[in-house]
Design brief:
The chain is α+β, with helices and mostly antiparallel strands. The chain contains 3 helices and 2 strands. Strands 1-2 form a two-stranded parallel ribbon. It is globular.
């Protein structure tokens, strides 16, 4: 995570360094997506995360939604068809997808 200017490095977590995320112990299935019209998370970052999550065996799907920006995951009128329809079959199954 980028904590911004050095004037206030501990604003978010009381530390001058980012949290350590132990992705190798992840046991929750994941779908991850990046957006084509956003600057908060670039596709290269999502691809790197997908690679790490794939090694855990818990990555179901990874993809890019080219027409979306950061807030579209929640607010887009087509989010149900574009994203949620990819996730529901896995959530309704006892099998890994």
């Amino acid at each position: 995570m980028n904590y911004g200017a050095k004037v206030n490095p501990s604003k978010y977590n009381g530390s001058t360094t980012p949290h350590v995320y132990l992705l190798h112990v992840l046991d929750t299935p994941c779908d991850i997506f990046s957006v084509g019209n956003g600057r908060m998370v670039v596709p290269a970052d999502t691809a790197k995360l997908a690679h790490v999550l794939n090694d855990t065996g818990r990555l179901w799907h990874a993809g890019v939604v080219a027409s979306y920006g950061h807030g579209n995951y929640l607010w887009a009128t087509d989010a149900a068809a574009t994203l949620y329809s990819r996730c529901w079959p896995c959530l309704n199954s006892s099998d890994d997808c």
